[in-house]
Fold this protein.
Amino acid sequence: MAALDASAVPTVFDGAANTAAVVVLLLEFSMLRAALLRTQVRLYAGQSLVVAALAVIVAAGRGIPELYMLAGLSVLLKAVIVPRVMLRFLRSAGTEIAGSGALGVASEIIVALGVAGFGFFVVGTLRIQSPVLPAAALSLSAAVILVSFVLMIVRRDVVSQAVGFFSLENGVSLASLVVAAGLPLILEVAFLFDLLVAVVAFGVLMRLHHRRARSLSTASLDRLRG
Amino acid sequence: MNTVLLLVTILPLAAVAVSLVAGHRASAAVTAVSGAASLGLAIALAYGVPGRTAAVGVLRADALSVVFVLATAFLYAAVGMYAAGYLAAEARAADEVGGTQAADFARYSRRFHVGINVFAWSMLCAPLVDGLALLWVAIEVTTVVSALLVAIDGTDRAAEAAWKYVLLASSGLGIGLLATILMYYAGAHALGQSYDLAFSPLIRAAARLPATPVRLSFVLAVVGFGTKAGLFPVHTWLPDAHAEAPTPVSALLSGSLLTVSFYAILRFYQVTAGTLGPRFPQLVLLVFGVASLLLAALYVLDQHDIKRLLAYSSVEHMGILAIGVSFGAPLALAGVLLHVLAHAAAKGNAFMGAGVLVRAYGTKSLVAIRGAAGRLPWTGPLFLISVLALSAMPPFGLFRSEFEIVAGGLDRARYAGAAILVVLVTLAFLGLGLAATRILSGPAPAPPSPDSPAEAAADGGAPGGAAAGPRAAAGDTLVAIVRDREAEPQDVPPGHGEPSAWMVIPVLAGTAVLLLLGLHPPEALTGLFAHGAALLGGRP
């Protein structure tokens, strides 16, 4: 990979893009360890902002004006509407602290590190080159997606699991900036609209769960088996 | 043909609009009419489309999509009628009681009818949209709507099933979205940086796509959409959701939703086979298919809950579809498409029959449902027929389809795959057959016996006598109360247990369709299957 020609020297654009992608992954790790559900939702909002910022960087650096529109819409939906819905639900539920995860925080982070490293290097070996963003961003998005799965698996409350799914979607958005930046705006908007519909369904089901189980914990969800 | 195509995607929306404003009876009637009309339109498509492609705007129908539209439309029609009977007792009770409970029921009925029409609409649209991106959008809509429908009864168990379902299916579709954008990336090498993932150009350009992204995209698509199609190991939401959803929804989930997701896998298969040749995608599908079939056959053998039994049978049939595609012979591919239709009819029948049994006995526990032949003179035998049809007994449609799949496999010298298929299907037949014969002719349980409710509770899978009591005590919806009232063990004279004729007629129709598909499929259908098989690369 280390070709010695000039193109191997990272440009400012590459640096900015990679930094944004790394921040997205770091925020994913922070969500994994956040003890307060409110904090987790705010970290998700922050992560969505960074993904939108990356879209702006790509729009400016590569001259794809549709991405400005996409960035604006995703900020509105993922950094404003979704977090507000979640925070309002948390206020009405009156629960602050997430239930204990399946693992301790330290073990969670170690597992997540292993999984993230696996995703990062495996996707790196595929040599998928993109004309838009440095390939490292794709590897980072794979790591984000895998860590979001760890988050959904080890945390045992509906809010963390929902946030895990939403951040999974952020990871996919990051990947789509790398490999599908030219995707027509109308399709991107359809994806966002779908996310909005999913948020409504998640909200309804979280409320139903809270009403029936009188808690946010998923520990009681073990009656259906066999 | 283009008008028909537009109408199929608009008609259910009209039913949604009516259900939003009209009362229970009008909504039920409109749902049934809309289902029947959609079926008529789908049949018109089946006669008009073979050999060519109809397209309007973002809609596109070819032989492959029409098969899936037919399956959905048939179940929509059957379920539309069945639902009228399913809610009839509650509607009567609501009229008698009046007051807040009548208002509760009106709300439930509105949600139910709006939900089921939106659900059917999204599943009719999914195979008719042009392009992988829109297909993903449509399938995500089916997930959201069906998750809300699974939760509609509002019980603890329904809440649990719905939460598992929405989380697992949405995460699966997250992977499916990743597969879609990777396919976009691969396509960009041939079609330029900005295009809309429409099927025809993508499939035409398939040979020029880079191999690695396509390979990755296909595997991600099988895992992602396979979550919704119920392939092992990502099937775990399926038995819960199928068991806890209201019966009309279970029938739609099993017969239609699973196959619509499988349709998405087939579209990825078309592109991947064009790029990499058929070996790689066939191998992937074979592995997932055999694993699903094996798991389902074992779970069917030892199952205590009638709806979970049928749910695992769905996993089994999705495995058969995957194995059938992996054989790659034209005969096997035509068999797969026939299987989609016949499975929709048979599984719809089985769930609708099971719904009547659950209603009549007030439990889902197979231990307690005995002696149905005497108590339910129509549903009992019809349920047995559906189970025989599901187990691919002649002369029903699934016998023909599985025969074609196995024959296609032998034709391509896939002896091991064909042998595994036959053995595991036989194993599943053993489980289903045993359960069905016990249901029909087992000694009727003495209702007041203290054993059976206790056993049912010990199963952990039965909400019957044990779990139903507290539900009513908690002052739940009228729907739950009526169900519990009917669930009380009572001495029903033999032959007077059928709750409603509306719950029998669709099953009779389904049986007729199964016989038709098995004995002599209409010319138009066989033509459709042959064209669909050719689209999947099954040209000899």
Q: What stands out?
A: The first helix of chain B runs from residue 2 to 21. Chain B is about 75% helix and 0% strand. Confidence is low (pLDDT under 50) at residues 448-476, 487-494 of chain B.
